Structures
1.
Amino acid sequence: MTENKTSAIKFYNEIVKPTVDDFLHERTSIRKGFLAAIVINHIKDYLYDNYGKKDIKTKINASLYAECPHLNTISDICNAAKHHVLSNKRSVIKSSEQVSQTNIPSLFEVPFGEGGFSEASEVFIVLDKTNENIHYYHLPTIVTSAVNFWETKLNQ
């Protein structure tokens, strides 16, 4: 498995970084959140030669997900955007409908120390709702983590 950093860096600078910046400046946009996940997920297509071959893809993904677990969630979001429903049992996300601009309880609706300000209306991945508890991922945090990982990897 060889790396093609020139293509990956060009794709990152021209497509990924501006798309991610658009989302991080408008954290309430589901559309921009999906687009950020899609372009982040495809950096590996530009970086690794022969990425499309199944055995190579499996090996690369296992290594990348071990280094940055948020890349697995990014991959699920990307696939949910394309297919709507995911049937893979290992997927964290089962449907594109889980990516939403949900009103998570804000500062004045929950016990002290458990709420937030602007985060309450940003894009989240709702994992499950049980009783009155909502388990979720904050998409801007996942996107930022994934982008930081790729910036470091591409600059090594």
Note: The longest strand covers residues 124-130.
2.
Amino acid sequence: MTRRAPGCWCSATYRLEHTPADRVARTLSAWSIGTGAAIAVLTALAGLLADATSPRTAITVAGLLVLASPALLPRRGTDRPPLA
């Protein structure tokens, strides 16, 4: 097992390593269903936006949201020692 920074909860690998063995399939199924539902909802919202404005505007907004998504990722503090 590799060492991780204290409080590191962001990795799917970390989460699965800490999920009881009898719940791994349930966890993966929940992630799969959640991903599918999010794709369906966001596609519908993009369609509504395209209908209200134009397809070019909807694609531009989607592109900007994708470009902005790294801002949602957790940041590592610079005061921590590097992982070995």
Note: The CA atoms of residues 5 and 79 lie 11 Å apart.
3.
Amino acid sequence: LGDVASDDEYLEIPSISRQRAGTYECSAVNDIDTDVRTVDITVNYAPSVSEGRDVGVTLGQRGVLECEADAVPEADFEWYKDDRSLLLDLLPDRGIVTSGSLSRLTFFNVSDGDYGNYTCVAINKLGSSNTSFLLYGEYLDQVQGRPGPDPVLRRQ
């Protein structure tokens, strides 16, 4: 925080930014004694999400979409397929787990109906941010035994 200092009884931090968050120290000195106090400054800001990564998954396999958001206070997450909230449509073969700044949408047994476009929205009291994902099909390459692009479900 180096360049923020004051010889006054108060400290003014112009143009506060998240980089200014942290612990500040105040020292009072006279001929008799020195007193030092610290204060923790928290800078709140709207969420910023990392760009979504498209994921290819073979039918019947497990697939995971991960959404990470930087925000103070911590963001709440919402997931959508097309424009439909997944909270209204949670099925036993998929789940949403959020821990801190990371939310995971897991498909335990991918079916044809799972393929498509997904959106993760991170929200706090200062705003929101979103990113999109494509869950697309892969098939096992008969020769190599490795996943390859599905000849029917191509990335858009």
Note: Residues 150-156 have pLDDT under 50 and may be disordered.
4.
Amino acid sequence: MDNISIQLSFYIESKGYKAIPIPSDEPYEYWDSQNRHGRAILSLKHLAQLSGLGFIDKNTLLKERGCFKP
């Protein structure tokens, strides 16, 4: 996913726009090394919901629009 993100950013920039690839697993704003749990600066799940790709269901999974009705 990170390689696709980088290639897509290069493509967008070649068209004259600005783009920044966001790593899928970092950067972490907070990391609890004891529990091996991190909290990212950007939630990719929430970003997908904001872009209209789906919705976050009550079980916190992203579901595509059209497959299930919220």
Note: The two ends are 27 Å apart (CA to CA).
